Fold these 4 entries.
Entry 1:
Amino acid sequence: MSALPERYFTPHDVAALLGVPLETVYQWRRKRTGPPGFRVGKHLRYDPDALHRWIKSLTERERD
């Protein structure tokens, strides 16, 4: 089992990190095209490693 990250990202964190509007992050989730997220109660969170893999998959598709 791998260690838990020091902190999981909020939708605001993801939007700020990627330089996109917060609504874009929510649209990705609704359309199931964005990074995988999970709920902790009513709070949406993103694993930094999963976000990194999602970004990497986008950049690899661009090269093809």
Entry 2:
Amino acid sequence: MTIRVLHVASELYPLLKTGGLADVTGALPLALVERGADVRVLLPGFPPVVAGLADLKPVARLAHPFHAHASGDEAWLEQGTLEATGVTVYVIRAPSLFDRPGNPYMDDEHVPYGDNAPRFALLGWTAAQLAQRIDPLWAPQIVHAHDWHAGLAPAYLRAAERERGRALAKSVFTVHNLAYQGIFPAQSFYQLGLPHDFFTMHGAEFYGQLSFLKTGLFFSDRLTTVSPSYAREIQTLSQGCGLDGLLRQRTHELSGILNGVDYAVWNPATDTTIAARYTPSRLTKKRDCKTALQARLGLAQHGDALLFGVVSRLTEQKGLDLLLAAVPEIVRRGGQLAVLGTGDPALEAGLLRAAHAHPESVALERGFDEALAHSIISGSDVVAVPSRFEPCGLTQMYALAYGSLPLVHRVGGLADTVVDASLENLADDLATGFVFERFEPEAIAAAIRRAFALYARRTDWRTTQQRAMRQDFGWGASAERYMALYRELAG
């Protein structure tokens, strides 16, 4: 039996990307299609989404139960095709809610839009409408919602089932990052057309406010998160973000399924965005990528300098404050640092000061540029992902594929994917990067020293690079786990 699955999310690579969520929703549906599922994706009608879809055609008018947009504005559902993969995409056209330039979540001052509650409630409500056959030609058996933006989908589905007196579809809710919860004032709830009894401690209410994320966690049939270690960590007081009690109650319905890498996009042998293509057996060409990156960022053209790369949001969660404190040690040892990202103004300012103080050794490019991200991953010797916590992390898996050894904190998906270059792991042919245990300056400094020490032993370094590049974190195994979950739910 072919299982019909609707993925509900706010981003989809290559149409719209602000982080790893887009990479997942871009690659996972295709991996599921390859395993026989009938998969479609539902997205808000942000301008890049609408512009990037082919063959858009109307499906239905959306007479939704709340009125966030101006009188006379309409919302409607359209269907198109993502040409890169052939996946069918539903898009919600509501111009006053979604047709805004720039970031999909916040304005030019980095302030979240004041109407984000109804904007993303419409996403969840429309998912439930699709389960009720608003498209007469297709309805999902599984509604798979991603992160807080889609958190109300399971609740709207549960409400519709109550009203109709029968089951419509099963729901899966995936937490990509528990720290981002979609919190809104309590009065927002009563504008969204959900049953009033859903707003309780055993429901959508979270310390007197509305939490989209908690709503998804409570009302979905099954929960997943993006790595096995993170599934354990979020059930603890220290990493549960106030939701660890609920997650422990649902521990038998929670699965940690590691995200995968789309090797059609992230493959140094075929990547047309980098200076030179290379493979584990032809690693000399990687040096050309390093030279090109140094030239692009104005770093000194020292081929032997150990180059650390960062592609990240510049936030404390990502541990960039810890790395910033280690910059003097990197520079003192003759290393270099290339950073691409934007975020916390204090971190940006600190990195800019380091770049001004050491222009030949430190470079910061603010913003996000997909091609430059590939250049940093390919041109760096080490890719640093020193996160305080990390649900999965894709950057370290991209780095492995490119032979750029990851330097990571042992948390979440970082712990699940990188093996430290300790003497015993090197001897046992296991090492793929550098791992520090404690989130402390001394611990990251020790990992940085290990990186310099291994880099000085060029044969061992090359062997470790080749081992890293042979790791397989493709979507195959993860897609099989999702398929098993869907089959279980579909009965």
Entry 3:
Amino acid sequence: MRNIFYIFIGGGLGSVLRFLVSNHTQKLWNINSFPMGTFVVNIIGCFLIGIFSSYFLKADNYLKFLLITGFCGGFTTFSTFSAENISLWESGNYFILAGYILLSIVAGFGAVYLGLNLSRN
């Protein structure tokens, strides 16, 4: 039951931070129809989950529930990523759609890899 509490707290904090970072980023970098706010949040989340996984995934303590499952789960957002892709598709922004998907996957993979390797050294 205690682990559920840690997930709840981490998820709430991650969700609020996602909202703040995404909105602020979208205002700073409004590039055509590209959903920069969600992109930045998801790449930061990938980097953080790489770092957190390196430290806490093997340990049996509350921090993996608080930071990995809770915070990163609340901070990153695959559902918004998917909805934005549908919107880009429906509006005919196929070039931006393809770029968003490709950049998200490549940069996300790279950010997890970087996070894992930086925290191991």
Entry 4:
Amino acid sequence: MNVTWEGSGRDGTGWEGLSPYAGRCRLPGWDCTAGLVVGEDAALMIDAGSSVREGARLRTRAHGLLGGGRVTHLALTHPHFD
């Protein structure tokens, strides 16, 4: 999947590129961070917020960033409310 991180934070997706294949999104409220790692045929989201609603919002943001591609894997690093 091709991702253009430049400007993605300004267009409403909230993603900040850290490398050509990885980015992060800072979430309001608890100021937690979600990550996105993109490969050729897969995308890994690292943490999905602190609620189902926040997770759905992140998935939608990632979908837009991935040009219609979808998150194929999810890693949850710890129980959240942060």
